Amino acid sequence: MTTFITRWMVAAVLGLASLVPVYALEAGDAANLKAGTVLSLPSANNSGARTLTIAHVHPVRSDDGVWYQILGSSADGQEQLVYADLSAKPPKVEVMVKRVNLRKLVDRPRKFLDAVEDDEKGELTLDGVVYRYNDKESDDGSLEPDGNAAQAQAFNYLVFTSTQDPSLSIQVMRWTDEKFDAYLIQQVSAADAKLQ
Question: DSSP code of 34?
Answer without folding.
Answer: -
